[in-house]
Amino acid sequence: ADSFNGVDALYRKGRSDGSSDTYSCAAYIKRFYKEVHGVTVNNLFGGRTPNSSKGTFKLVKTPEAGDIVACSSSGSSNHWAIVKQVNDDNTVTLIEQNWKWSQGGQTLCKINRSISISSGKFYRLYQ
Question: Exposure string (b/e) for 58-77, b if CB count within 10 Å is 16 or more?
Answer without folding.
Answer: eeeeebeebbbbbbeeeeee
